[in-house]
Write a structure and sequence with these properties.
Subcellular location: Cell outer membrane
Structural class: alpha+beta
Shape: elongated
Number of helices: 13
Order of helices and strands: HHHEEEEHHHHEEHHHHHHEE
Distance between the termini: 146 Å
Number of strands: 8
Strand content: 5-15%
Largest sheet: 4 strands, antiparallel
Helix content: 55-70%
Strand order of the largest sheet: 1-4-5-6
Keywords: Cell outer membrane, Membrane, Signal, Transmembrane, Transmembrane beta strand, Transport
Signal peptide: 1-18
Pfam family, one: OEP
Family: Belongs to the outer membrane factor (OMF) (TC 1.B.17) family.
Length: 544
């Protein structure tokens, strides 16, 4: 049976590319497609902010109308030329809908920016997990090779013995069978090593040589890692910050959906070859069931976002707590295993000497080899469990990039608030209108006279209507009272004496003298003066 030395030599003859875990993480964060995709999503979210801010600005569009066929009542067909035009639209008031969309876009941008850091941490953790898996397989292969060398030594001695004593061929067969078990385990670990290095090449772009794998935490202890990388507030983790921004985005989206259920007032100006116009356009979905269910859906989405935040916080706390405990227990196991290895080596040395003088059987020696190999594998597993726990602890604290002294591609900066001047203008107009309406309602409530008994008008406190588009009986009653008051003031206004006229006037129109109706019977009277009750200049018209 040929040993597996060619397989081991194949692993050791891999092209050298000296790479430690920190270099692997740096290269992964700079070239991995997932990190680049997250960064591009953040850039797209920055453009969404500018798109939402554009709602504060007017839109300008060119129009053109070409009538193909027109027939009037006479049946004649008329041809029209192309009628170009220009139209501008500006939103004046939308109940805060535009601002809500801007806030939603800003929170979405912050979500993607924090998500970029979270994705970078996940990519670095995945690359480090593959690196540590390859390192574990490499150290297990080294342990198995030591065990294989011990089997080769005992088989070599048995081959010499069986040349002179054919009755001990069975012991040689037993030793060769144990060697085959070790070779099978060695082949399995070699497969794991090759697979881990192949998968790790996805993040590095090149294959890493097994001999370049080294222990990244050789100088670290659980206390040193906890002291350097513990995060006092887990709410500052990139994943939690991303979910918090997502929650704020859901709140802003809910405000935008609610505002869409109210009227929208737009100023529209258009100019064509034949027409010029500027008008206000009010758009209101009076019946839109979809808007109602969108608001309900947004409420459920908000609950889901808050639950996800709570779950992420609990998961991070549990992972950090468990990893810290695992680090301490793994080092304790490794220390005990090292003591067992030293004791078992003494046992093997004694068994080998006793075997040569026929005081121990070959099975006793092979069992001692197996026990030593198992203890060595346990020690290697404990050391690698410590590294895995340390790597998990760094990931739970969001400190993978900090430990590797690496950073993902810089996310784009958040766009400036270019809509602030227009928003201040909108807010100022809204506050002014709201203040005037409030003062007007307050003045009307204070100066409104008591409603006379027997009238159909309702009390003032129930008829006050803040909506100017729906008049009430109170306002109609106030208008009637104002008209009566004006008529009374006009009747009570004192008469003004006009300047004296010098030209002669007809007898019936002369002012200041009595009119002789007896002398004027021959002619039909046109005008007469009421000198009894009316003032001197109150001329009373008589019907013809």
């Amino acid at each position: 049976m040929k040993p597996v030395f060619p397989l081991i030599a194949l692993v050791a003859a891999a092209p050298a590319a000296a790479q430690n875990l920190q270099n692997v993480v740096r290269e992964a964060l700079s070239k991995d497609p997932a990190v680049i995709e997250a960064n591009a999503d953040a850039a797209a979210a920055a453009d969404d902010i500018r798109i939402a801010q554009a709602g504060h600005y007017p839109t300008l569009s060119l129009t053109g109308t070409q009538t193909l066929l027109h027939r009037d009542r006479s049946g004649r067909e008329r041809k029209y030329k192309l009628n170009p035009g220009l139209q501008a639209t500006l939103n004046l008031y939308a109940w805060g809908g535009v601002d809500a969309k801007v806030r939603q876009s800003r929170h979405k941008f912050r979500y993607h920016r924090h998500k970029t850091d979270e994705v970078a941490g996940e990519v670095g953790h995945e690359a480090g997990t593959l690196y540590l898996a390859a390192l574990r397989a490499k150290e297990l292969i080294q342990t198995a090779r030591h065990n294989l060398q011990r089997h080769h030594a005992i088989i070599k001695d048995l081959q010499i013995i069986t040349r002179h004593d054919k009755g001990r061929l069975s012991e040689l067969d037993q030793a060769q069978a144990r060697r085959l078990q070790v070779e099978a385990y060695l082949a399995e670990q070699t497969r794991i090593l090759e697979l881990s290095l192949s998968r790790l090449g996805r993040y590095t772009g090149t294959r890493i040589a097994p001999q370049s794998l080294n222990n990244p935490f050789v100088r670290d202890t659980p206390d040193s890692l906890v002291t350097r990388f513990r995060r006092p507030d887990l709410a500052q983790l990139p994943g939690y910050q991303a979910q918090a921004a997502e929650r704020e985005s859901v709140l802003a989206e809910g405000a935008a959906r609610k505002s869409s259920r109210y009227p929208s007032i737009n100023l529209i100006a258009g100019a064509t070859r034949d027409n010029r116009e500027i008008y206000l356009n009010l758009s209101w979905d009076v019946f839109n069931p979809a808007a109602h269910y969108e608001v309900k859906k947004n409420a459920h989405t908000l609950v889901a976002a808050e639950a996800k935040m709570d779950a992420l916080l609990r998961d991070s706390a549990e992972r950090g707590r468990s990893a810290e405990m695992d680090m301490r227990q793994s080092l304790k196991r490794a220390g005990i295993a090292q003591q067992q290895i030293a004791a078992q080596k003494k046992v093997i040395k004694a068994y080998e000497l006793q075997f040569k003088i026929a005081r121990r059987t070959l099975i006793d020696v092979l069992d001692a080899y197996s026990d030593l190999s198992n203890i060595e594998l346990t020690e290697v597993a404990a050391q690698n469990d410590f590294r895995d726990a340390a790597w998990t602890y760094l990931a739970s604290q969001g400190a993978v990039a900090q430990w590797a002294q690496a950073a993902p591609p810089a996310a784009p900066a958040e766009p400036a608030d270019f809509g602030a001047p227009l928003r201040r203008w909108h807010d100022k107009i809204s506050d002014t209108l709201r203040r005037k309406t409030k003062n007007k309602n307050k003045t009307v409530a204070q100066t409104l006279p008591d409603v006379p008994a027997g009238t159909n008008a309702a009390p003032a406190r129930t008829l006050r209507e803040p909506n100017p588009f729906s008049p009430t009986a109170q306002r109609a009653w106030l208008l009637g009272q104002a008209k009566k008051q004006k008529a009374q003031q006009a009747a009570a206004r004192p008469a003004v004496k006009p300047p004296k006229r010098t030209d002669a006037a007809p007898p019936l129109l002369r002012v200041g003298k009595a009119v002789d109706f007896t002398a004027a019977r021959s002619a039909p009277p046109v005008l007469g003066v009421d000198t009894t009750n009316a003032p001197a200049f109150a001329v009373k018209r008589t019907p013809l």
